[in-house]
Amino acid sequence: MTSPRLPQENRPTMLRHVDYLLPIFAALISAVGVIMVYSATRGPATELLPAQTRYLERHLTFVLIGLVAMFITAWIGHRFAQRMAVALYGGLIFLLVAVLVAGVEVKGARAWFQFAGYQLQPSEFGKLVVIVVLAAWFGSVETVNAQRLLVGLAMVALPTLIILKQPDLGTVLVYGAITAGMTMVAGVKGRHLFILALLAITGTVVVLQSDRLASYQVDRLLVFIDGESNSGARYNLEQAQIAIGNGGLTGKGLFQGTQNNSDLVPEQQTDFIFTVIGEETGFVGSVVVLGLMALLLVRIWRIGQIADDRFGRLLSAGVFSMILFQIFQSVGMAIGIMPITGIPLPLVSYGGSSVLSTFLALGLVQSVHMRRHDYRYSSTF
User: How many domains, in total, are found in the chain?
Assistant: First the structure.
């Protein structure tokens, strides 16, 4: 008797379709991140005061766990995430509400859970949940009409409003970039996109003029267009630009950055990690790092193009939009062309939640590539 035919996605043959460049680029970028985090946090490293390795050890642990999580996610498959879209969304809303009640406050924002010395930021993983939910919702039809668009926007608006209560405007901006990128790829009509853009601009103005954000947060957002500002944000921006300018063409050498070693740039291991890259490796090193990130983005875009279903295509578009915006924003605020927000440089900045969520996202994109010859799966919605 002939054995029943197994679905192709459950066969070991899917390993033949692994995109090896995706994890290679991710690993190389992460290696840069490990070195830069160590340089930003090691301290002066004198004979009396040895180099500090606490941040290095933690960040390396996050990267290794992230690599394993990426492979596990790719093996489980993106279609499992599609089936779990509703549960994931419900879990996200629960965690975002819970963190407002039981979370710890760091630098004016209540956005983290504290566990045995480690912090977990639900809104970071929420980026991935939003991508999965929108991909499932928009991917279930060939044409996204106005009604489906409005429902999709409402799905994003609920977690966004909760995150504004933390408040964390940087993460809200990433959610907006994800939504914008996915709606364009979903085939939303031009007039609907225009209306969406107007709503986004109006919402931004309303938030800036409300009392939801503290004055120092507003200063950080507007400092890149206010050259006469004397706020602490202006000082932070000036120190970041000095650090990058010190790097010149080839940099001052690893662990030799004067601004870095003097601890003049704030949040060097997180928000302003690009200043460490710029000062110690110079223009050449910065171009190499950004080049690796560009290659990673090209692979994500290519995988989205060859996906065999709308869900996989939209999923890849969401991950692409998330990473692209975070790169542009993180680098842009360091050189003074974008507002200062707490957005990490993907796979480089210190932060377990950011590193893990990015690797999980890449795992889902890898799954799209591995299963691009499978049968179509019916949508959750």
Answer: 1
